[in-house]
Amino acid sequence: MTFIKEILTELEKLAPLPYQEDYDNAGLLVGAPDTEVTGILFTLDITEDIVDEAIRRQCNLIVAHHPIIFKGLKKLNGKNYVERTVIKAIKNDIALYATHTNLDHVKGGVNWQIAKRLGLQNIKVLAPKRQILSKLAFFCPVENTQEVLQALFEAGAGQIGEYSNCSFRNEGQGTFLPSENANPVIGDRGELETVKEHRVEVMLPSHLQGQVLSALKRSHPYEEVAYYISALENENQEVGAGAIGELPEGMGSTDFLNHLKNSMRASVIKHTEPTGEAIRRVAVCGGAGSFLLRNAISAGADAFITADYKYHEFFDAEKRIMICDIGHYESEVFTKNLLHDYISGKFSNFALCLSEISTNPVRYFS
Ligand SMILES: [Zn+2]
């Protein structure tokens, strides 16, 4: 038996909800976490047709990229497709979950999927986020340091890029005077004690602060643990908008546009004038990414692949970069494959279905 909350836990390991933008509404939109899963349908968007597909394929959980409930829903009387879709899902006991800008912001997320389809190598986050890391410093008897650190690493501290178990320690003397009501592990009530201690520092994602501090308190021998936690200004190079990588070899603009069209199955690409240089470094951002143009240029990208570009924004390329708008749906539709493949590796006791319906509301006439 698998419950919805177990699926959500796995999805949120890939794309933690605190990484979503403030305006977003990712998470469990409809349904109860302690419901047993009968099957999961993966899709880019949730529409009434998608809910019908879930019913037909006996899936009681729909995992999507775009949250069907995005703005406040004040009435539910079926006057538009959002309300009708939500009503249909509730009536049929189908849970709705969206992993949106949080999935845009992680390694292995939406932009990694685009980069991989294009065959980019050496993929990195284009605009790393700040103010999402903290530092924990704590004091510990030297003989207990390793055990406490191990508990902190298991709770998610000490990861920097491809390096885990990162910490720093130095040795010194800690002092304390236990009161008459204290229960000291070392020393006696009412007597000043001096202990050989380590001062240890580790970094952690700020959203894991609760679980890291409980691991500290659980594993530390002292009745009262001395620690400081502080917010850092550092960029988190693992988390942020867009991605950038390199093609194995430079390509002429026509070859590149053909490659882009084929690998993303785009029927049309709106692009700016080629710069005349070969295209090797490529920046990508699924969905509306014009806000990242400056990052793409300063990272030395020859082309920027995104969607939802407005007419006047195309002028900003100024022949320094080729902007390629492949369409919002086309840039993100393979997100359903990414989510399907990710969950397939972890659960196999119920159906995991890729939606067969195109939810693209845009048609091209040529
Ligand atoms: Zn989107």
Explain what this protein looks like in three dimensions.
Helix 2 (48-56) runs parallel beside helix 3 (81-91). The protein has 366 residues and is an alpha/beta fold. It contains twelve helices and 15 strands. Strand 3 (61-64), helix 3 and strand 4 (95-98) form a beta-alpha-beta unit. The two termini are 50 Å apart. The mean pLDDT is 97. The protein has a six-stranded mixed β-sheet. It has helices at 4-14, 48-56, 81-91, 101-104, 110-117, 145-154, 209-219, 253-263, 293-298, 311-314, 328-332, 335-344, and strands at 27-30, 39-43, 61-64, 95-98, 121-130, 133-141, 168-176, 193-205, 227-232, 235-251, 270-271, 279-288, 303-307, 322-325, 351-354. Bound molecules: zinc ion. Zinc ion (ZN) binds next to helix 11.
The helix tally amounts to 12
How many strands?
Answer: 15
Strand content: 25-35%
Describe the largest sheet.
Answer: 6 strands, mixed
Question: Which ligands accompany this protein?
Answer: zinc ion
Quaternary structure state of the chains depicted: single chain
Helix content: 25-40%
The parts where pLDDT drops under 50 for at least 5 residues are none
Q: Termini, distance in Å?
A: 50 Å
Mean pLDDT across the residues is 97
Q: How are strands sequenced across the largest beta sheet?
A: 5-10-12-13-14-11
State the shape. Answer: globular
Pattern of helices and strands: HEEHEHEHHEEHEEHEEHEEHEHEHHE
- Classify the secondary structure makeup into a structural class: alpha/beta
Radius of gyration, whole Å: 25 Å
